[in-house]
Amino acid sequence: MESMSFHKFSGNYLVLRPTEVSVFDLFRILWSHDLEEKAIVQCPPERLQENIRRKWLIFMSLSSQKLLLLAAEPMRWIGEKLEMWVNLVSLNRNVFVLFLNLLRGKVKMPDRRSEVFMSFIGGLDTRVELDKDIKPGDCRYFGAMAAKLSYENEAFVRRIIRDYWKKNNTQAFMVYDKTTDMIIVAFRGTEPFNADDWSTDLDVSWFELDEMGKIHGGFVKALGLVMEKGWPPYVDNDNRHGHLLAYYTLREKLKEKLNPANKTRFKVTGHSLGGALSILFPAVLALHKERLLLERLEGVYTFGQPRVGDKKFKEFMEIQLRNYGFRYLRYVYCNDMIPRTPTDDLAFLYKHFGNCIYFNSFYKGKILEEEPHKNYISLFAWIPRHLNAACELVRGRILLPLIKGAEYKETWLLMMLRLWGLAFPGLSAHNTQDYVNATRLISRRIYHQLQHHRHPWKIINGKQE
Prior knowledge:
Strand order of the largest sheet: 3-4-5-8-9-10-11-12-13
Oligomer: single chain
Largest sheet: 9 strands, mixed
Low-confidence stretches: 460-465
Strand content: 5-15%
Radius of gyration: 22 Å
Number of helices: 19
């Protein structure tokens, strides 16, 4: 059985099989103690009782993933039509010009593979230029903009990097900045209408490795875990189902660029799921003793990153931060629900670590060990979250453009998301625009504290802007 192969690299694991489960099986989970029946839930026999106590979480995860499997095609269809409409309006300037062009028979039609076709994320925030006030060498340089750009198609990415950023890039979205002799690796996050991405986020599977501790199963599989072997040092990467394994592909490309003959360094960034993959990437490099790459790693910068592992994983990574001295900055905007998941409680015991740069709804920042209301389910946070969501509606369309300039005026598409945020503030607060704004508007004093602190892995508690 495939379940037995997990013992080769993990003595403790929980693997959920949403493709194997029926609706009847889902509800039977709640009253049955036979969780491993039909291989719907796989775990070591001696850990079965421990996982029975988490049946409700397993039920919710499997139900969500099953629903996403059923909704995958409708979600994809809706996403494609919405993106096509956003690009149709943008290409013809606005709705009124589109109507005139329709009457004249001169409508400009978007091409999904073209250099100007934007994703849904791109439609929320159409800015593509780097902030001229942030100079090369500043830890904010590239950061959030690279994480945002990672959602776009290859042609769009190439055009922005070529025409706006004036850099060279590879097909894996590794950008080389000649000015600072730095490579930027950007991981793409959860696409709004991609059911597989959402299923990865909602999967409560996990694997425990002796050195690294317990890690979120969906994230490690997305990075390139080989299910039969775990993390072997080398694999045949012509790969399964036509997709290359991200970790092994990026590692080899970096080795081609970073060698003893040069001093080129690299940094890693990502938003949402991309942030989780960004911090997992150096973790697996450390597992494989990739000393050269880790010594060349300047920093990991994540935006709206979920928790990745347990206390042992946190301790493992703190050792790597000390040994190799790379910077790890975890940006959290206001009510964003994703950094507050999976929960840090008795059910999951997932932990954040490193420097959390937390921003309120006015982009005032401070450095904390943990964001306020660390788990999203919090009665005390309910009222301020909704007040902040209402404030964001006025701020983004009126106040911020008046104070900071027209480039901060939010798109009609983002305003629709803000309206949705009145009911679900944690989801609307997860957009990339707020993270780009935060890195541009925050006081430089905080970055000065981080860049000149003797121990970049330690928390500078409560330092206020």
